[in-house]
Design a protein that fits this description.
The complex is a heterodimer. Chain A is α/β, with parallel strands linked by helices. In chain A, 48% of the residues lie in helices and 13% in strands. Chain A has a 3-stranded parallel beta sheet with strand order 1-2-3. In chain A, helix 1 packs parallel to helix 2. Chain B has one domain: Histidine kinase-like ATPase, C-terminal domain (Heat Shock Protein 90, 2-Layer Sandwich). Chain B is built from 5 helices and 5 strands. A 5-stranded antiparallel beta sheet of chain B has the order 1-2-3-5-4. In chain B, helix 3 packs antiparallel against helix 5. Chain B is globular. The chains are: A alpha/beta, B alpha+beta. The interface between A and B is medium-sized, with 25 and 27 residues.
Chain lengths: 93, 153
Protein backbone atom coordinates (compact mmCIF):
# COMPACT_ATOMS: atom_id res chain seq x y z
CA UNK A 1 0.00 0.00 0.00
CA UNK A 2 1.36 3.36 -0.98
CA UNK A 3 1.38 2.69 -4.71
CA UNK A 4 -1.49 3.04 -7.18
CA UNK A 5 -3.84 1.36 -4.71
CA UNK A 6 -3.49 4.26 -2.29
CA UNK A 7 -6.11 6.30 -4.08
CA UNK A 8 -8.55 3.42 -3.98
CA UNK A 9 -8.02 2.88 -0.29
CA UNK A 10 -8.39 6.59 0.35
CA UNK A 11 -11.70 6.62 -1.54
CA UNK A 12 -13.03 3.56 0.27
CA UNK A 13 -12.11 5.08 3.60
CA UNK A 14 -13.71 8.39 2.65
CA UNK A 15 -16.89 6.60 1.58
CA UNK A 16 -17.01 4.77 4.89
CA UNK A 17 -16.58 8.02 6.77
CA UNK A 18 -19.26 9.75 4.74
CA UNK A 19 -21.67 6.90 5.41
CA UNK A 20 -21.23 7.57 9.12
CA UNK A 21 -18.70 4.92 10.11
CA UNK A 22 -16.62 5.81 13.13
CA UNK A 23 -14.89 2.47 13.68
CA UNK A 24 -12.92 1.00 10.83
CA UNK A 25 -11.10 -2.30 10.61
CA UNK A 26 -8.57 -2.50 7.79
CA UNK A 27 -7.88 -6.04 6.63
CA UNK A 28 -4.25 -6.10 5.50
CA UNK A 29 -4.32 -9.74 4.36
CA UNK A 30 -3.71 -8.88 0.73
CA UNK A 31 -1.24 -6.10 1.44
CA UNK A 32 2.29 -7.33 0.81
CA UNK A 33 4.01 -4.01 1.38
CA UNK A 34 3.36 -0.57 2.78
CA UNK A 35 5.52 2.48 2.31
CA UNK A 36 5.52 5.78 4.15
CA UNK A 37 2.82 7.09 1.81
CA UNK A 38 0.59 4.21 2.81
CA UNK A 39 1.35 4.86 6.47
CA UNK A 40 0.38 8.46 5.90
CA UNK A 41 -3.01 7.38 4.62
CA UNK A 42 -3.58 5.15 7.63
CA UNK A 43 -2.56 7.97 9.94
CA UNK A 44 -4.88 10.40 8.18
CA UNK A 45 -7.69 7.88 8.60
CA UNK A 46 -6.85 7.48 12.26
CA UNK A 47 -6.84 11.21 12.76
CA UNK A 48 -10.20 11.72 11.06
CA UNK A 49 -11.85 8.90 12.96
CA UNK A 50 -10.40 10.10 16.26
CA UNK A 51 -12.03 13.45 15.74
CA UNK A 52 -15.36 11.64 15.44
CA UNK A 53 -14.67 9.57 18.54
CA UNK A 54 -13.86 6.49 16.53
CA UNK A 55 -10.80 4.39 15.84
CA UNK A 56 -8.99 2.61 13.01
CA UNK A 57 -7.61 -0.86 13.71
CA UNK A 58 -5.70 -3.36 11.61
CA UNK A 59 -6.31 -7.00 10.83
CA UNK A 60 -3.96 -9.67 9.42
CA UNK A 61 -0.82 -7.56 9.45
CA UNK A 62 2.15 -9.40 7.96
CA UNK A 63 5.46 -9.71 9.81
CA UNK A 64 7.03 -7.30 7.37
CA UNK A 65 4.43 -4.63 7.93
CA UNK A 66 4.59 -5.29 11.65
CA UNK A 67 8.34 -4.51 11.46
CA UNK A 68 7.54 -1.27 9.71
CA UNK A 69 4.97 -0.28 12.31
CA UNK A 70 7.47 -0.99 15.08
CA UNK A 71 10.30 0.97 13.48
CA UNK A 72 8.02 3.97 13.08
CA UNK A 73 6.48 3.40 16.53
CA UNK A 74 3.08 3.35 14.86
CA UNK A 75 2.47 0.02 16.55
CA UNK A 76 1.63 2.15 19.57
CA UNK A 77 -1.02 3.94 17.55
CA UNK A 78 -2.72 1.10 15.72
CA UNK A 79 -4.10 -1.96 17.42
CA UNK A 80 -3.73 -5.01 15.21
CA UNK A 81 -5.37 -8.39 15.33
CA UNK A 82 -4.99 -11.76 13.67
CA UNK A 83 -8.56 -12.82 14.40
CA UNK A 84 -11.44 -10.92 12.84
CA UNK A 85 -14.02 -11.72 15.49
CA UNK A 86 -11.65 -10.57 18.23
CA UNK A 87 -10.95 -7.41 16.29
CA UNK A 88 -14.64 -6.63 15.89
CA UNK A 89 -15.30 -7.39 19.54
CA UNK A 90 -12.57 -4.95 20.53
CA UNK A 91 -14.64 -2.06 19.19
CA UNK A 92 -17.35 -2.69 21.77
CA UNK A 93 -17.22 -0.37 24.77
CA UNK B 1 37.92 -20.52 -3.22
CA UNK B 2 34.73 -19.24 -4.80
CA UNK B 3 32.86 -21.79 -6.86
CA UNK B 4 31.88 -19.24 -9.46
CA UNK B 5 32.36 -15.61 -10.33
CA UNK B 6 29.07 -14.67 -8.66
CA UNK B 7 30.33 -16.05 -5.35
CA UNK B 8 32.75 -13.12 -5.22
CA UNK B 9 30.00 -10.64 -5.70
CA UNK B 10 27.93 -9.24 -8.52
CA UNK B 11 25.74 -6.34 -9.52
CA UNK B 12 22.14 -6.15 -10.64
CA UNK B 13 21.02 -2.91 -12.25
CA UNK B 14 17.60 -1.87 -13.40
CA UNK B 15 16.01 1.35 -14.55
CA UNK B 16 12.33 2.02 -14.10
CA UNK B 17 10.06 4.91 -15.08
CA UNK B 18 8.86 7.15 -12.29
CA UNK B 19 5.50 5.56 -11.81
CA UNK B 20 4.12 4.29 -8.52
CA UNK B 21 3.16 1.14 -10.44
CA UNK B 22 6.85 0.34 -10.50
CA UNK B 23 6.99 0.00 -6.72
CA UNK B 24 5.33 -3.39 -6.95
CA UNK B 25 7.89 -4.45 -9.56
CA UNK B 26 10.74 -3.29 -7.36
CA UNK B 27 9.23 -5.14 -4.43
CA UNK B 28 9.08 -8.36 -6.42
CA UNK B 29 12.69 -7.93 -7.46
CA UNK B 30 13.83 -7.48 -3.89
CA UNK B 31 11.70 -10.40 -2.78
CA UNK B 32 13.33 -12.55 -5.44
CA UNK B 33 16.74 -11.39 -4.36
CA UNK B 34 15.91 -12.29 -0.79
CA UNK B 35 14.96 -15.79 -1.93
CA UNK B 36 18.09 -16.12 -4.08
CA UNK B 37 20.36 -15.01 -1.24
CA UNK B 38 18.36 -17.09 1.25
CA UNK B 39 18.04 -14.14 3.57
CA UNK B 40 16.52 -14.50 7.00
CA UNK B 41 13.32 -12.61 7.76
CA UNK B 42 15.03 -9.70 9.49
CA UNK B 43 17.40 -8.94 6.62
CA UNK B 44 14.68 -9.61 4.07
CA UNK B 45 12.22 -7.20 5.67
CA UNK B 46 14.83 -4.51 6.27
CA UNK B 47 15.98 -4.63 2.66
CA UNK B 48 12.53 -4.71 1.12
CA UNK B 49 11.11 -1.94 3.27
CA UNK B 50 14.13 0.32 2.76
CA UNK B 51 14.37 -0.15 -0.99
CA UNK B 52 10.66 0.55 -1.37
CA UNK B 53 11.11 3.75 0.64
CA UNK B 54 14.07 4.84 -1.46
CA UNK B 55 12.14 4.04 -4.63
CA UNK B 56 9.11 5.93 -3.38
CA UNK B 57 11.21 8.99 -2.59
CA UNK B 58 12.87 8.88 -5.99
CA UNK B 59 9.58 8.58 -7.86
CA UNK B 60 7.59 10.97 -5.71
CA UNK B 61 10.02 13.65 -4.60
CA UNK B 62 12.96 13.29 -6.93
CA UNK B 63 11.17 12.85 -10.21
CA UNK B 64 7.71 14.24 -9.31
CA UNK B 65 5.93 11.20 -10.76
CA UNK B 66 7.18 12.16 -14.22
CA UNK B 67 7.22 8.83 -16.01
CA UNK B 68 9.67 10.15 -18.57
CA UNK B 69 12.27 10.45 -15.82
CA UNK B 70 14.13 7.32 -14.83
CA UNK B 71 14.91 5.84 -11.46
CA UNK B 72 18.07 3.77 -11.49
CA UNK B 73 18.51 1.01 -8.97
CA UNK B 74 21.76 -0.83 -8.51
CA UNK B 75 22.25 -3.79 -6.19
CA UNK B 76 25.88 -4.58 -5.35
CA UNK B 77 25.83 -7.99 -3.77
CA UNK B 78 28.68 -9.53 -1.85
CA UNK B 79 28.52 -12.64 0.28
CA UNK B 80 28.02 -10.76 3.54
CA UNK B 81 26.91 -7.33 2.47
CA UNK B 82 24.49 -5.74 0.10
CA UNK B 83 24.55 -2.16 -1.09
CA UNK B 84 21.65 -0.63 -2.97
CA UNK B 85 21.97 2.65 -4.80
CA UNK B 86 18.84 4.46 -5.95
CA UNK B 87 19.18 7.47 -8.20
CA UNK B 88 16.66 9.98 -9.47
CA UNK B 89 17.09 13.08 -11.61
CA UNK B 90 15.97 15.52 -8.95
CA UNK B 91 18.00 18.32 -7.50
CA UNK B 92 17.87 17.00 -3.99
CA UNK B 93 16.57 18.46 -0.78
CA UNK B 94 17.71 20.04 2.46
CA UNK B 95 18.74 16.89 4.33
CA UNK B 96 19.62 18.78 7.49
CA UNK B 97 16.18 20.35 7.63
CA UNK B 98 14.44 17.04 7.07
CA UNK B 99 16.48 15.40 9.82
CA UNK B 100 15.76 18.28 12.20
CA UNK B 101 12.06 17.97 11.40
CA UNK B 102 12.25 14.26 12.07
CA UNK B 103 13.75 14.84 15.49
CA UNK B 104 10.86 17.07 16.37
CA UNK B 105 8.32 14.88 14.63
CA UNK B 106 5.24 13.72 16.36
CA UNK B 107 3.90 10.28 15.70
CA UNK B 108 1.08 11.62 13.55
CA UNK B 109 3.09 13.60 11.09
CA UNK B 110 2.09 12.68 7.55
CA UNK B 111 5.43 13.04 5.84
CA UNK B 112 9.11 12.42 6.40
CA UNK B 113 9.14 8.89 7.65
CA UNK B 114 10.99 7.43 4.70
CA UNK B 115 14.43 8.55 5.80
CA UNK B 116 13.76 7.58 9.39
CA UNK B 117 12.71 4.11 8.25
CA UNK B 118 15.80 3.62 6.10
CA UNK B 119 18.13 4.80 8.87
CA UNK B 120 16.53 2.43 11.37
CA UNK B 121 16.72 -0.63 9.16
CA UNK B 122 19.93 -0.25 7.18
CA UNK B 123 23.51 -0.03 8.44
CA UNK B 124 24.35 2.79 6.09
CA UNK B 125 22.21 5.47 4.46
CA UNK B 126 24.09 8.11 2.51
CA UNK B 127 22.71 10.80 0.24
CA UNK B 128 24.57 12.51 -2.55
CA UNK B 129 23.25 15.47 -4.44
CA UNK B 130 24.66 16.34 -7.83
CA UNK B 131 23.96 17.92 -11.18
CA UNK B 132 22.83 14.59 -12.61
CA UNK B 133 20.48 13.89 -9.76
CA UNK B 134 20.15 12.61 -6.24
CA UNK B 135 21.49 9.30 -5.07
CA UNK B 136 20.83 7.40 -1.90
CA UNK B 137 23.06 4.50 -1.00
CA UNK B 138 21.75 1.92 1.40
CA UNK B 139 23.98 -0.80 2.76
CA UNK B 140 23.45 -3.69 5.10
CA UNK B 141 25.59 -6.44 6.50
CA UNK B 142 23.83 -9.71 5.90
CA UNK B 143 23.41 -12.23 8.68
CA UNK B 144 23.76 -15.87 7.82
CA UNK B 145 20.75 -17.99 8.53
CA UNK B 146 21.19 -20.71 11.11
CA UNK B 147 20.06 -24.27 10.62
CA UNK B 148 16.42 -23.65 11.46
CA UNK B 149 16.16 -20.78 9.00
CA UNK B 150 14.81 -18.19 11.36
CA UNK B 151 17.56 -15.82 10.39
CA UNK B 152 19.12 -15.68 13.81
CA UNK B 153 22.62 -16.80 14.56
Amino acid sequence: MGGPDSKIFDEVLSDALESGATNVLVDMADISWVNSTGLGILIAGHRTLSLKGGVLKLLHVSKRIESLLMVTKLNTLFESYDDESQAIASFSP
Amino acid sequence: MPKSETDKGYTISITVPSSVHMLGVIDKLVEGLGDHLDLGPEDRNALAISVIEAGTNAIQHGNNYDESKPVDLRFDIKPERIAVTVRDTGQGFDLEKVEKDLEAADLLRYRGRGILIMRELMDEVAFRFGKRGTTVKLAKTLHPRDGDGDGEK
